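Q: Focus on the shape:
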Amino acid sequence: MLLESKVEKLKISTSERAVIKYISQIKTQAVKMSEDELASGSYTSKATVSRAIKHAGYRSLSEFRREFEVESQYMMQSYYNMNPNMPFEREESLLSMINKIFDLMHEALWDTKMLLEQNQEELDQAITLLNEAKFIHVCGSPYGRELAHIFVNDMSKIGRLVNVIANGQYLSSVVTKKDVVICICYEDDRHEQKEQLKTLRDLNVPVILISALGKNPLKELATVFLPVTSRENVYFKVKGFATQISALMIFNALYSGYFLNKYDEHVETIRLNQNI
């Protein structure tokens, strides 16, 4: 989750909140500043800066610099012409509402395309893991698993079965290090998914994580990280229009990349299925 999105929900002091807001305002400049400089700019103390950074989820100033540099660069490159959390208003006509949802989803697709281009090596690695895996599994948040069913159905049409793991308690009994697991989670509550990924790490099972940018505790547990568009607020929005279409595009990229590996074989499989 992006720092500027979660600042209002952090249970921190007024002075610590001032530090986080200052960092969010100056973005990329913050990663080059010392604690003394951040304290001066936010009219707080060095100790307050240290506490604010730790309460925001970063273990140290160096980790903050590393993580926030990626986040701030994304924010500068990412472009939304409207508020993704509230894309239409109370007095909106039906046609106007439809147009705004269309525009929002179009912008989310462009945002996801940019992220995939910037993470092409990770996408290539993810597709390689899918091609080499004995079995493919999907786990994650309930809403994420619902989106994954489209990918599951697409893969089944070309003869590749994908197992959806609804209960993480059974991970150790259904996966091996020869498999690969796709974990999709971009909600703020990641505790269950974190425990699942710890189990998979202990089993040496490769994991493809589809999740949000920003300070994300799941990233360090994954083999490959593919970020979804991350401009929506987790706590308040009409609907996850942007993240939904973004996740679907990533699944489509994974499916299409897998399809390309044995293009003629998969085309023939589809042709045979259509003739049944």
Summary: The two ends are 46 Å apart (CA to CA).
